[in-house]
Amino acid sequence: MPTEQLTARRPEIGADELVSTLVPPPRFDSVRFSTYVPNPAEPSQSEAVRSCSAFATRLADSSTRAKGWRSWLRRRDGGQARQGLYLDGGFGVGKTHLLASIWHEAPGPKAYGTFVELTHVVGALGFAEAVRRLSGHRLLAIDEFELDDPGDTMLVNRLLRELTDAGVFVAATSNTLPDKLGEGRFAAEDFLREIQSLSARFDVVRVDGPDYRHRGLPAPPEPVSDDELAASARAWSGATLDHFDALCDHLARLHPSSYGRLVDGVSAVHLRGVRPAADQAIALRLVAFADRLYDRAVPVLTSGAPLDTLFTEEMLAGGYRKKYLRALSRLTALARDALDSQPAR
């Protein structure tokens, strides 16, 4: 039987599904505050658990007040209590785990999605309809908040102003971190400056520490031969096999918000002829694709160039450095999973 190809898939998400499918990805189905294991050497992680748990409790408490909850949200000094929580930190410190834990503890209705998914919702439904559908939610959780595109950023900022005015709580994590900001972390003050009038509604929680998936820079497994790759794809029920260049072309024809559905139900992804990304547009699509593979815990086996050459030195020295390093970290973890769980042939 021929091995299935991702390039043969044409995932589509109907307008009516857009909001109903905004839930944490499978990898984070069962995470809770109690399953987050803080690094003893990083006290900010324990403090982050406490802060996120307190935010979730305050959110839950507000939903039990059928009347007068708006007055409850006002501080005794007459100011507005903060309805937003922003998790600031590097990759691999558990920000998504904490964000998903907030979502699981919060009462419904609630929505969870990436920044890209949220912009797609607004684009597909229209701004007014997106506000209408989301304004009745108790929580909107946004993973991977980006500052890549000023237009998208301002669109989402406007959306968040409308939603918080309607009483929706918002929790977010950072994503794109310009290299000049240093220390491998997002500059919270830059984020707060970008969201302008929303800044007074967000508490910033720092989550420091090294990437929990790896010690130091990730060292991916060596790529296999093309013959080994094909044999693995045949033996692995539900696996896919694609040429790397063909997959890159296919990703360019899909909206990044559909990348998750592209790999839904896939047991393992096999890529032949991996090579460095030809340009930054391809590289950023590969980052989004790697994130969705990681969300769904899909092992990845490759032939061709090693995974740690996927992004050029020039790319790694640029403004998207943190995003590329996160993708390498996640792909390396998935490549190790592939070697550990390969079926016998």
UniProtKB/TrEMBL annotation:
Coiled coil: none annotated. Gene3D superfamilies: P-loop containing nucleotide triphosphate hydrolases. SUPFAM superfamilies: P-loop containing nucleoside triphosphate hydrolases (SSF52540). Keywords: ATP-binding, Nucleotide-binding. GO terms for cellular component: cytoplasm. InterPro entries: ATPase_AFG1-like, P-loop_NTPase. GO terms for molecular function: ATP binding; ATP hydrolysis activity. It holds the Pfam family AFG1_ATPase. This is Putative ATPase. It comes from Saccharomonospora marina XMU15. The lineage of its organism: Bacteria, Bacillati, Actinomycetota, Actinomycetes, Pseudonocardiales.
